[in-house]
Amino acid sequence: MRRFLPDNFTLMLIVAVVLASFFPVSGVAADYFGLATKVAIGLLFFLHGARLSRDVVIAGFLHWKLHLTILAATFVLFPIIGLGAGILVPNILSPALYTGVLFLCVLPSTVQSSIAFTSIAGGNVPAAICSASASNIFGMFLTPFLAGLLLSASGHVGFSLDALKSILLQLLAPFVLGQILQPWIGNFIRSKRKILMPVDRCSILMVVYLAFSESVTEGLWRTISIGDLGVVIVVDILILAMVLAITMFGSRWAGFSREDEIAITFCGSKKSLASGVPIATVIFAGQSIGSIVLPLMLFHQIQLMVCAVIAQKYADAAKKARLNQAQPAART
Which of 32, 152, 208, 311 has its CA 20 to 30 A from that of 55? Predict the structure, then answer.
């Protein structure tokens, strides 16, 4: 039952939302807190750049078919499904929450959980490292572009030059600086992962608290009901189920090995909360983003629970296959 319970980080996210709901930051305090949040986001992307080994990036190009498949699932399949969810607006899904669903569908894949589940299931871990990392690099460009394209197509405000400038300064510049310094500080940062992990999590918690504080001040919970939350959860589950089925069975049909199938399934079906929340604050600057990041926060927990079960199924099947192979050998 433990795999179905929220992890510690999800519980902290819930606490941040509750605090913002009852004690939202506003006025001058919100301005200073917003400045601190921007600094934290810059540090987050700097660490991402410094952690990523260039050898991993170069090696990723060697298995190009697998990586293109994962990128297609992340940046083509998901957006198509997101556009299809537009039939639910406005009778079932509110326009504000649908914006959040569209934004969810154009985000890059996760890194840590994609690699972790691929490892548990016995998949191609090096390929998962390359693909998840590449997804986040490309996501800094593709996510704003696709968000503008899809939001414009659905009648929402498109992507602006100001947003592009903010992304270049707040996200890409720190990442590039981290990559430049990676040969000198990369090993140290990777060796201190547990010590530096709070930087990742605290920056996301700060963004979530600030986003929901602004949204609560503008009346978020007066416009979103329990029924709306239920609809978003069902939509998130359906999107994840479709992507998992397509990546899993599609990779088998395409002739990928079992190890590659596992990497495609887990890397192609994930969406990054760590990248998504900071990017949302840049793309939707000046807007109420509480309802926009809500579908992503719910999807984050759903994907962890579902993929934990699937990873264990893969691992059990591999163990059973090894036992079946060992028994005839033992008889001979």
Answer: 311
